[in-house]
Amino acid sequence: MTVASDPEVYDVAVIGGGPAGLSAALNLVRARRRVLLLDSNRPRNSATLLAHGFLTRDGISPLELRKLGREEVLRYDGAEHRMTIVESVTRVDAGFELACSMRNKQSTAVARTILVATGLHETLPEIAGLRAFYGTAFHSCIECDGYDKRDQRLAVIGEYPDLAERALFLTQWSNDLVVFTNGSDVVTLLEEEALDSRGIRVDRRAIAEVVGGRDGVTGLRLDDGEIADVVGGFVRPGWSSELDYLEGLAADLDADGLLVSDGHGRTTAAGVYVAGESAAPGPQQLIVAAGSGAKTATTINRDLVGGIGDLADAVQ
Q1: What is the spatial distance between Cα 48 and Cα 59, in angstroms, rounded to a whole number?
Q2: Domains 9-121+238-315 and 125-235 share a fold
Q3: Among 32, 59, 176, 294, which is disulfide-ready with 153 (CB 3.0 to 4.6 Å)?
Q4: Full-prediction pTM beyond 0.85?
Q5: Domain 9-121+238-315 belongs to what architecture?
Q6: What strand order describes the sheet that includes 227-228?
């Protein structure tokens, strides 16, 4: 049974309306919780035309998936949705007060617990034309889009130490690969030798621009003017969690700026939970994020119910 709460206080405020947040909200509202879903509708995969690997929804637009998810959540009594950005969260007697803003419209809400599912922000390498082809010819999620790039001549672009590992993983879908470090020194000589043994060349030159037009990508123009013959590929963006709105809640972050959790969605701050990409390991497939949301929802509901020990203490 749901613990009675003040009509103005939500059981859970879910911050973020991607697969993790929507899945959590759906499971919580089905647990008869009063749930407030707060979302700016600005996902990091907004440039992606089609999402893959989500059972029964393979090939769906990510924006359409979010739309369908919101509709499912809002069919239930106790669910409410606000299109807004959470600016700050502070502790109050009832739990947490959230200050929100969207297009100069201010609002507040109070919830007993909060679930952080705001995901990550992507920063692409500064290469002219890359943004125009991101989501069509170039992608970041190999598991999501590798199949659709199978057996093509592909570039693997990045400026992070996991670049060689990503290139090796991509060989499951194509062996016609070139690794571009874009002028950075992120592939060791040992890694280069290992990639070369698999027929993968490493090019350490900086990339000036992506060459292409309406018919797609025709190559990469390097700083020295040479054009590398590729038709697309995968790029390793930079990711940031942007969790400044939680400042003051004393929730621990790891070295990557992601929320530390106990494996069940509880952070180190009481009443603050996390699901999806805001916690380690970070970027995930949509279906994995959705599963994370469902798992954390169960944790939240059980914590709100309390245990036998809590009940025994209350009656003494």
Answers
A1: 11
A2: yes
A3: 176
A4: yes
A5: 3-Layer(bba) Sandwich (3.50)
A6: 207-213, 216-222, 227-228
Residue 258 has pLDDT above 70, yes or no: yes
Enter the CATH code of domain 125-235. 3.50.50.60
Q: What is the pLDDT of residues 86-141, one digit of tens each?
A: 999 999 999 999 999 988 899 999 999 999 999 888 899 999 999 999 999 999 99
Res. 312 pLDDT band, cuts 50 70 90: low
Distance of CA 312 to the CA centre of its chain: 40
Neighbours of 191 (CB within 10 A): 18
Q: What percent of the chain has pLDDT over 90?
A: 81
Structural domain boundaries in the chain: 9-121+238-315, 125-235
How far is 40 from 43, CA to CA, in rounded Å? 8
* Residue 75, C-beta contacts closer than 8 angstroms, at least 6 positions apart: none
CA-derived radius of gyration, the chain: 22
Distance between CA atoms of residues 2 and 154, nearest Å: 53
* CA–CA separation, 279 and 282 (whole Å): 6
Q: What dihedral do alpha carbons 66, 60, 219, 164 form, nearest 10°?
A: 70
